[in-house]
Amino acid sequence: MDYLKGLNEPQREAVQHIDGPLMIIAGAGSGKTRVLTYRTAYLIEKGVDPFQILLLTFTNKAAGEMRQRIENAVGNDGKNLWMGTFHSVFAKILRFDGKHLGYTSDFSIYDTDDSKSLIRAIVKERGLDDKVYKANVIYNRISGAKNRLIGPDEYLNNSVIAADDTAAKLPEMGKLYKLYTLRCFQANAMDFDDLLYNTNILFRDHPAVLDKYQRKFKYIMVDEFQDTNISQYLIVKKLSELSKNLCVVGDDAQSIYAFRGASIDNILNLEKDYPNMATIKLEQNYRSTKNIVEAANSIIAKNKNQLKKKVFTENEVGSLIELIKASSDNEEGRLIATHLFESKMAHGLRNTDFAILYRTNAQSRAFEESLRKLNIKYRIIGGLSFYQRREVKDLLAYFRFVVNQKDEEAFKRIINLPKRGIGDTTIAKIAVTASENQISVWEVVSNIKQFQAGRFADTIEGFADLIKSFKIMVEVNKKDAYEVAAHIAKASGLLRELHEDKTVEGLSRYENVQELLNSIKQFVDDNEVEEEDKSLSSFLQTVSLLTTADSDDPDGDNDRVTLMTIHGAKGLEFNHVYVVGMEEDLFPSQMMLQSRADLEEERRLFYVAITRAEKKLMMSYAESRYQYGRLKPCEPSRFLDEIDPQYLQFAKNIRRPEEKPAPQGFVRMTNREQKAPDFGTSNKPTSTASLIAKPAARPVVGNTYIPSQDFVPSDTKNLVEGDRVEHLKFGFGKVKKIDINGTDRKAVIQFEGTIGEKTLLLSFAKLRIL
Ligand code: ATP
Ligand code: MG
């Protein structure tokens, strides 16, 4: 038990407290996750059967990393733990016991796209206006209800909700919820929220099942407890009712999912539900330098609504937080990539030591481009992941339908893929026939001639025979996931269709499908060793629960810079961290700011961002940014003003590693001119506001034109031939011609220098009329 030496006193106390409820609410980087890891190892060493330990983490990735550490400490026993995200653990339980609710163990998991597509279909079938009954809105309402454990019947009978729906002009909302639930059930499918909702119903209505799991899980632990919602809380509470051995760790200052129904109240509820609960404080941060810890403390102190706690560190003071100012979002990308490159060289670091964190996924583009130009490898976590690509989802839909023929969304995706000449009307008709007769789409399709004569009947019959042949491979011949998948890819015609498409996109789609097949092969090989289930159904379960923070590298080269949203970065740590896009309306996000509580949630998010950094923290903001196709001026984020300025300085003189000469006639600045403003000898400004207000020189950005500092695009409505203009990227030019084509207006412009003639779409062009 040597590893207990790697813990401080309160951490050790937490690890050794094994009987009775325990709560640790402590600041970032204080070793909460480490305590859970060590505590699990400790329990196993004390003789607790790993099958009786349930460890709930925030991402599958976190679970994987913890499992690895536990295995290092206790050996193979660590493999038998129950650990993973709420969704993955309870999906597994529903595979075993969902039958009590009428689901088979092969139920499909609908992702958000499937759910919204089903909602759109129902809205259409009921003849409702899809501009009022937007799939997004309906989906969020249903999700909100489920997370508060309000089922469709209760929803329909609830007068408060009814009044709210009327106010929102959605009187049919309750009926849609009910129909949606019914259709999912008929499709033997659960959406993400159902995985928690149905677990609650299972435990509520089937006491014997609950009893089984209460006896099974003698020790339950939850990481990131502050981000559980009520539905998750109730599951944990019920499961631990018998043993009372519940240990939760979290940090109210890092609660960032209130918008999805997570509630800090769960911390208070827990104290009420377990009056004799022990609490342990952890106050020492082991992750970050003093400057970072203290800057983070200075921010979070602005939140009124928080539990009091101290965070200190004995780590070195470290360098000041660096502020990087860019004139535009593209320049922000270039400056950060350059800064990163220089730091990497100067400190002999690896790419994995760096993370670029942003508020929204869309911000990644500028950084991707600049990193690529400097040949720095990166990985994007979140965003459009591999499994969300169209061709990958298409093939997965085939697999889903072969495993579960009731899966209506999978059916709709593949019935006309590759093209069989079956249109939307026919597809909708099949769905309606199934729903009206209370049977599955498969029962309609496999007996199509009973329901429809028409000219499509033969084609559909052919499709049904194809699916039947795949089913035989799975059910009768018991082929493994790879054999079935490779056969389906070929026999369905999907692979051929992609292979025949010789465009660049077509080629990359073909490669993605091959990559999917490779990953299935890998899955089968891994599971062969572990003697686990290698069926197609088991593969599907694994992929449908990958969270956005779990994407892996396509080519196994792991030395990459991480690009991700701050939400996705929770719990992680990096040597150098860039928090980018520090602008009003972006961070804090305009979309989220309705009230003081929202601002506090954004501030907690900022606290999460800052506390990811170990050694160095950089923050950047741009003075203008493209939004919805327009260049908009931006203001620095109020959060920058909130950091105690003694911890901040402007980044100095970021040079480009290799600079190409600018084309003739273009503005070019010398290295001396691009120096950041001089703040005197101390280099410590007295207030952040004054620091930001100082005009920083605009750095050279390769061969791209640098617009004048007051560049504000003009309204191009009045642009006429002969006008002289300035373009944000292309510099000065003269309008040669205006083309009007429907609502599109285009201008042919002769730019100076090497740029030459360009045709620009005026609704997007950033032009200043001179
Ligand atoms: P977060 O709130 O961000 O999730 P956390 O409280 O879970 O943070 P950990 O990730 O467990 O913190 O720990 C932060 C870092 O400090 C990790 O690198 C961990 O290994 C290290 N650490 C924690 N406790 C100790 C200790 N007693 N001695 C040395 N290092 C420690
Ligand atoms: Mg943690």
Question: Could you explain how this protein is built, in words?
Answer:
There is one protein chain. By secondary structure, this protein is of the alpha/beta class. The protein folds into five domains: 185 residues, 3-Layer(aba) Sandwich (Rossmann fold); 80 residues; 163 residues, P-loop containing nucleotide triphosphate hydrolases (Rossmann fold), CATH 3.40.50; 162 residues, PCRA, domain 4 (Orthogonal Bundle), CATH 1.10.486.10; 47 residues. It has 30 helices and 24 strands. It has a seven-stranded parallel beta sheet with strand order 13-14-12-15-16-11-19. A hairpin with a 5-residue loop joins strand 22 and strand 23. Helix 15 packs across helix 16, helix 17 packs across helix 18 and helix 24 packs antiparallel against helix 25. The longest helix has 27 residues. The protein starts with 8 loop residues before the first helix and ends with a strand. About 6% of the residues have low confidence. Magnesium ion (MG) binds next to helix 2.
Helices and strands: which structural class? alpha/beta
| Poorly predicted runs | 659-704
**Count of the domains:** 5
Strand content: 5-15%
Compute the number of strand runs: 24
The geometry reads as: globular
User: Radius of gyration in whole Å, from Cα?
Assistant: 29 Å
Q: How is the topology of this model organized?
A:
Blueprint: H1 9-16, E1 22-25, H2 32-45, E2 53-57, H3 60-74, E3 82-85, H4 86-97, E4 108-110, H5 112-125, H6 135-147, H7 152-156, H8 159-167, H9 173-186, E5 189-191, H10 192-205, H11 207-216, E6 219-222, H12 230-239, E7 246-250, H13 265-273, E8 278-280, E9 284-285, H14 290-300, E10 312-313, E11 321-326, H15 329-347, E12 354-358, H16 364-373, E13 378-380, H17 390-403, H18 408-414, H19 424-436, H20 441-446, H21 448-451, H22 457-475, H23 481-491, H24 494-500, H25 504-530, H26 536-544, E14 561-565, H27 566-569, E15 574-579, H28 596-610, E16 613-622, E17 624-627, E18 630-633, H29 638-642, E19 648-650, H30 688-693, E20 724-727, E21 731-741, E22 744-751, E23 757-761, E24 767-769
Parallel strand pairs: 1-7, 1-8, 2-3, 2-6, 4-5, 6-7, 9-10, 11-16, 11-19, 12-14, 12-15, 13-14, 15-16
Antiparallel strand pairs: 17-18, 20-21, 20-24, 21-22, 22-23
This protein binds adenosine-5'-triphosphate and magnesium ion.
The site of adenosine-5'-triphosphate has 18 residues, from helix 2.
